[in-house]
Amino acid sequence: MDQIIEKLSSRKLWATVLGCLVITLGPTFGLSEDAAVKLAAMVSAYVVGQGIADAGARRVNIEAQTRADAAKLPDADLADALAGELK
After folding, report:
1. Are 66 and 82 spatial neighbours (Cβ–Cβ below 8 Å)?
2. What total number of domains does the chain contain?
């Protein structure tokens, strides 16, 4: 259930849903085709950019956790070797 709530609170999801709705219903309310294309490009750029940022944050968290785990190892040489792999 927590995963569903997490997905529904995603800004990427809501940007995509609202973008699709506006693009689909836009002509009904006088939105030009040019404006719809620009909106689609903006929403796409936002979603891709946010995805790249999320992936970068996830990588930093994984590297920090690996370093912390390596520091707990009893053999200091092994810990240094594992920490060096992340550089």
Report:
1. yes
2. 1
